[in-house]
Structure formats: C-alpha cells, structure tokens
Amino acid sequence: MTRLSFVSFMLSAGLATPLAAQQATDDIAPEADSSLSVFATVSEAAQAALAAKQAGTPTTAENWMVAAANPLAVEAGAAVLADGGTAADAMVAVQAVLGLVEPQSSGLGGGAFLVWYDATSGEVTTLDGRETAPLAVTPTLFQTDDGEPMQFWDAVVGGRSVGTPGTPMLMEEAHARWGRAEWGGLFTPAISLAEDGFTVSERLASSIADGAERLQTFSRTADYFFPGGEALQAGDTLVNADYANTLRLIAAHGSEAFYEGPIADDIVATVRTAAGNPGVLTATDLEIYEVIERDPVCVPYRTTEVCGMGPPSSGALTVGQILGMLDRYDLAALGPDNAESWRLIGDASRLAFADRGRYMADSDFVPMPTEGLTASAYLDTRAALLNGDAALTEVAPGAPEWDHAMLLADDISVELPSTSHISIVDQYGNALSMTTTIENGFGSRLMVRGFLLNNELTDFSFSTHSDGIPIANRIEPGKRPRSSMSPTIVLQDGEPSLVIGSPGGSRIIGYVAQAIVAHIDWGMDVQQAVAMQHLVNRFGTYDLEEGTDAASFEGALTALGFEVNVRSLNSGLHAIAIGETLTGGADPRREGIALGE
Length: 597
Ligand code: GLY
Known about the structure:
This protein is α+β, with helices and mostly antiparallel strands. It has one domain (58-197, 239-397, 417-597): 4-Layer Sandwich (Glutamine Phosphoribosylpyrophosphate, subunit 1, domain 1), CATH 3.60.20. The chain contains 24 helices and 23 strands. It has a seven-stranded antiparallel beta sheet. The chain has a seven-stranded antiparallel beta sheet with strand order 7-4-3-11-10-2-23. A three-stranded mixed beta sheet has the order 18-19-20. Helix 9 runs antiparallel to helix 13 (241-253). The longest helix has 21 residues, at 339-359. It is globular. Residues 1-34 have low confidence and may be disordered. Glycine (GLY) binds at residues 415, 419, 437, 439, 459, 483-485, 505. Residues 415, 419, 437, 439, 459, 483-485, 505 line the site of glycine.
C-alpha cells in the first residue's frame, strides 16, 4: 500500500485522526490520490463514489446500486441499471468488465456462486457456477510419485489445477432467469474497453509485479502482462483484442460459444499441453458442464435471517455457524473495543472451522450433515463451549445430528486470497450477491483467447485419506471443490436488508461474519462495517490486521490464550444496506466503489 492510500485507508476505517492524516498527506501532496488519477476517465459520479469511500462515508441512492471491485466495472453495471436493467443484467456487464480490468481475480475462465432475492416471489435462490473436476482426474492428481501431497505452487501453475469453468454459463443462466435487457448488449462496455484499451490500475500493476516470476511461465500470459518484456505499470493503456473477440462470440451465440467450438478447443489444448504440468480437461468436460440450483442455507441471527450458498461452498454454513453461536451472546453490549467480543468471535470461528474441515464438501459426492450443522440445538451445544473466560484449549469438530455414521477425516487444503465480490440491488427490489473467482491471483497462469484459466482444483484436499479414513473434500471426477466464498443476503422480515460478500480465500468467512456483526450488533453503517479493522481466526492463529487498531488486541488475546499473528488482511468487501434508502460500502483495501441513483 502506498503511504497515501494507507492514510486514506486509515481515515476511511476511522483509524487515524484527520490531523495526523493531513500531516502525512502534506508530505506527498503533489502526487494527489493515485487511485483517482488512474481512474481519471471514469464519470463524475464514480469519482464522487471513490471520494466518498476514501472519506469513509457510504454512498446513498434511492433506486438502485452496484458495488464491485473496480470503478470501470461498476460503471458498466450502473449504466445497465439506469437503463431499466435488472440486477442479473447488471451482473453480466460487471463480470464481463471485471474479467478485463481485474483479470487476476475472476473471469470467464473461473467460477462463481450467486445468491438472488426475487422481489416478485420473495424467494431466495442460489446458483452454483463452481468449477468442476474433469472426468479424468484421479485421486493422486495432486500427489507426488511417493504419494505425498505436492508442493502447492507445483500444483497451481499449469493445466493440472484447471477445473471446467462455470462463470460464462452462470452469467447466461442468471440472465435467462431474471434478465430484462438484451443479452448481447450487456457485453458492449467490456468489448469497447478491451478494444480501445483501459487504464491499468495500481492494484493490477502491483499484482503483476508481485507475481512476476510465475506469471511469465507461459509465453502467451507473459506477452500480455509483460509487453516487450516489461511489466505493465499503473496508468498504462492495455488493449485485449482476444478478449473482445471472445466476448463478441458469447454476446452473439451465448455460452455455447464458450463450451463448444473453437474457444472450448483452445481451452482444452492449452490445459493439456501446458509445458511441465499438463492437465486432463477434455471437450466432454466442457460440453457436460451445468450450473446447479441449490437450496439456500439460511441461519437466524438476532432479528434477521442470514442466507447464502450451501455446499459445495462452506461459506454460508460456516458464516451461519459462527453467527449462530454468537447469537447466544450479547455482542452489542460488549462492543467492538472489548477483547471479550473477540474471544467469542475467535473461538466461534475456530469451532465452525473445525466442523468445516471435517464435514463440508460437495454434497453431491459425499454425505453431509448440512441441516444438522446449523440446527438450533446443535448450535446451543457448540455455543455453550464458549462459556468460559479464556481461549479454548481444545477445538474439535462436533457431532451434529446426522443419519450417517461419521466416517470422515479432517481436511488439509490451502486456499490463498484472490477472488472478487459483486453486490447489486435493482429498481425492482431484486438483490444479487455474487462472489466470483479464478482461485489464486492469475489462476493457473494459463491464458486463452484473452482470459485466464482458473486453478480451482487446488481447493480440493491434496490428500484423499488420513490414516485410511476418507477426507470429504478429496478430489473425484465431476466433483466441485469446497469453497469459502460467502455471497450473502441478510433478510429482515423476509425482505433483504443487507447484500454482502468478499474475496480472501478461507478468510472470506471471517470477513463476512465480522462485517455482519459490525453492522447489526455494533450499528456501523456499511462503509464503516467493510472498512473496519479485521481480527480473523480460522483454525489456528488469531490474525490481526497490521497497521490498524486491531494490533492493539495482541496483548489481550495472547493473555486469553490465543496464538496471535499481526499481518496484512486483504479483504474486498462490497455491501449494500437496504432501508429507507440504499447505502453502499466498498472496501478501502481495494479499488472498488458503490454507485447508485
Ligand atoms: N478459491 C476460493 C474459494 O472458492 O473459496
């Protein structure tokens, strides 16, 4: 983070006094705000939304709103919404642009989960556009010759990690169910930006610089991100004619143009011939891909119901378990400045992650106690474990009610932060929450026709068994890897009150749960809630966000018995609160905005 953007972040997070921030800003005033200059081409409304975020205030609107990780993508969605399009229409436009301007995080070569609130029916629907393991995978795909788990990076870079992408079909399915706008036109902003060129953002440039070595593994990817051998810099104009051509085909022929024909052929060939690390994807895997409607997972929290994506995502179940346990404690009375709040949140998270590691995976392939995990009586017993006054010394999976003998071993899998989140509310009252990914930053590093291919298969456990007992999230043909993505819609009296989600690997769960607590229990507006300093516990150390007041809890949490680690915590929360008006918040740690009218 540059010094100036750090100051902006501190201000927007309410973590620095204006005077201290002003003094720091004065030192480097001539550069002005670099994120504003990179986005100098965006509309005045988008610039105002950026400025609001940097001042720590939410965006407000009467009719519609869209929040996502890049102003160019948000503008594309806003134009659709202003023109009478639905949240599903706007999502297509946003995703198409994100795949161009934030290619490291999501795109056509990846997958996504979508939660939809339908204003007409009052129903919540969840769509699973997760990447899928090719039919030819074997249990040893991520193991060395002697049966040990591969080194993570040896697995990621190349064709081995590529699952059948789901995002193009998810875009089409959402549009077919809930769209009003003409499909092809939704790609126009992305096609124009790809052909005319867009300004490389600071975040994209720094991601390229940080990942330079792996990003140059394959020549097509290297040529795009390192034209003439030099890394792209913030402010450069980047043209992606291949991406424009790909989008034109999808705009004209729908997702079929992606799953069959020349694009599909190129994807398969690229995966199967990746030098040094080929994969097993075939044309059949692409032909048979399908988006799956799943039952939403909804868990009561205070006066609300928190709804999200069930298996193969662990998101809604784990967020739901954390909140379900915390629902038995008065966090509002304790407040955010009290270490006792963080003891409860930290250990509720550890207990939920213990269950996640044992039980959660693709329920089409392994039996899961999905209902038992969030049943009220079970959450009572898990919450009772938090009754003490120190960190738990033993954190083990529980025994939720289940019609199945427990035959599963604990999972070991690595999930590094990448991904992107889109929140949208349209003028008809529909709400959309979609978290979208190619897994690791720049995915498998393989590029085809202007987009990157995912490495989502590394979200599977590399080991299939532990001491002879099967691991739920082991790789199997046609299975979808367990995710942490937590696109969420909170309902109050059956109507949406908050649309939220984040990138961040398995920390997504903590980011989303904490922001919901901050908004509901601690009365923060959405901008404060997404900007708030992070304290995140998964199943090990208590991670405290460096450079913020979170680090001041180090002593207290250590004294309570937690192992504490101060580090960067790079969420990308985008949220819309729905009340008398719409209020939007965009995470100051990333480049996005919330924009509405
Ligand atoms: N690959 C990130 C996730 O699915 O959680």
